[in-house]
Predict the structure of Citrate lyase alpha chain.
Amino acid sequence: MKNAVGRVVPEHLAGYGAVKPFAGAFHTIPAMCRQAPAVKICKPGQSKLVNNLEEVFQQIPVKDGMTLSFHHHFRNGDGVLNMVLATAARLGLKNLTIAVSSVFPVHAPLIEHIKNGVVTALDTNYMSGPVAEAISRGLLDKPVMMRTHGGRARAIECGQLKIDVAFIAAPAADDYGNINGVQGPAACGSLGYAIPDAEYAQYVVAVTDYLCEYPLAPVSISQTRVDYVVKVDSIGDPKGIVSGSTKVTKDPVGLRIAQTAAKVIKAAGLIKEGLSFQTGAGGASLATAHFVGKMMEQAGITASFAMGGITGYLVDMLNRGLLRKITDVQGFDLDAVHSIGNNPNHLEVSAGQYANPFNSGCIVNKLDTVFLGATEIDTDFNVNVTTGSNGLIMGGSGGHSDAAAGAKITLIVANLLRGRLPTVVDKVLTVTTPGETVDVLVTERGVAVNPRRGDLREKLLAAGLSVKDIRELKQEAEKLAGVPEKIKTSDRIVAVVEYRDGTMIDVVRQVLDK
């Protein structure tokens, strides 16, 4: 079958099932109900504290073939996934599905668990490092499921991703299962990505290294959803949450792109009282927020809220009165961790509230604008942030597709060349975010506007911006760097890229080494 972005996808895929092809960003309408976990009882005097993970495995009991879930609020500092899988291996468990919201280099031990048959399926929103490389070269027999952050919450709530046991890294917990992310030696900030799992998993285990007196306050995840509490020596290193650059870039080219992006936002009429925006970590993205902030100061206006991976820069904007609120599903540095624990206007939100398209309204729908990056963008404005120039998986949508779909204006902020390769191509290797949800590409050599947004193009021209056809930018890139060689892949599908609505937007095929 050919889907709405022109990708040929199978009608049925072993290890995945029947395929529903992507039909458009808002074409698929849900015909389903939310699932519900089993009703339980905890009698007076019954303790939830267990001595170790092995005891948890025995009491549940965890069996072959179950789905265990984990979360990435520690990013590359996470210690819980490796700890739990080491326990599963010691106990001789096999054929587990691991549903982890993101995979990082720290999770390299997962490779051996796959080779040994402990883990036979993987469901995630983002992958980088050794596991991603091994998957790209065919490590797993089943294709990896790659979702968006909102799509994962949707799949959990709607019962498409059924979790048997959720293991939640809890920086602070009491003995009855109340947990938060803002206290303890491993404080990491928002626990937003763990909230859907806590609400819908059959069993929930809080793994903590900081046990507090009951009742814990504040509470991010309630005792009513936690079945077991395990005290361990360490759940992770909060320094590992720092993602990419969390400072405004000093690169002259990056600054020029960011300044142009801010001018695009101004020309679009969005520098106004109550502006809302999302940005993530990354020097150029934060630089765009910096220039937008300068424009806000000059105009004497305040943004209603900012969303995204929260950094110290956005915290500073909140403290300076440029933002009224921050809505935070995940902290990207330790300034964000400190702020969410102390500032009542810094709000913790769940992944479902952030970006699930199948509820009564998620936060991304309230965004005026979002500034996003790209590995590649094609002449139809489709964006790839899943695979790199070598064809290996090096990322994934995360909230990219979700924010692009929700925002009034979506900007892709990118250098025309990545390394020595053009960013603009005829067809991206992997479609992560469909072009219909992307409005503007901003580069150091000009701005391209999606033909769907003729209204926006006229505004940018009137503001004196250098507006070019995206094919013109592609030609300029190729004059500088040449036409890149086509990546060689086999027919074997190693990962499925699902759009936020559960349809198949693309697949990743096994890379053939030269």
Remarks:
- The CA atoms of residues 276 and 349 lie 16 Å apart.
- The longest helix spans residues 283-299.
